[in-house]
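Contributing: when you submit paired examples, paste them exactly as shown. First protein:
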Amino acid sequence: QVQLVESGGGLVQPGGSLRLSCAASGSIFSIYAMGWYRQAPGKQRDLVATITSGGSTNYADFVKGRFTISRDNAKDWVYLQMNSLKPEDTAVYYCMLAGGGRSYWGQGTQVTVAS
């Protein structure tokens, strides 16, 4: 079993920054990719950014140039540095791990951007 625990969410003013962290633990044998998704109230869950074990990254258009995903392979942690935050970035952010033919999800962390 794989567990993912997110941290770092909170309330921030527009233009501010937050850094999300996700720690993976459990029976992790082969990780293909880790990443972040988000879901705003009444909306579908959207991809924010992913990073493969080889370091290749992929970003949603709406965060390019503002968010940066990074990963510590030795500790199975993934991070999301979020800069220039906008009110429309308000959502629950979920950590995702893909590996062994399955996807695993964290419980989510709330990010609220408001003045």
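Second protein:
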Amino acid sequence: QVQLVESGGGLVQSGDSVKLSCLISGRSANSLIVSWFRRAPGKGREFIGRIGGSGTSDYNDDLRREGCFAISRDNAESTVYQQVNDLRPEDTTKYYCAADIDASTYSYWGRGTQVAVAT
């Protein structure tokens, strides 16, 4: 059974950066496409971006601020990362990683990691 565990969230200041991690277990990490989402209270789920097993990534153009979101992976460590730079209060939300062997489905989800950005 594939399990995903996010970490790296916390309370940060506006303008700070945070690097979130998604640890994968139960399956070879490089066989999975991993996506990052976020969901703010009262709002729907927002797709941030995804990364394939070989490291090719793509992002939600409506959400991405230039240079602010970057997804990477270390298959040897079975971990996918999301770097978020220049955090703003509106980035306060819970961030989730999801994975599947297909880019359009998300069979496996983590429980999320909370990021709170103070003004």
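If you have annotations for the second protein, write them as plain sentences, like these:
The chain has no helices and eleven strands.
The first strand starts at residue 3 and ends at 7.
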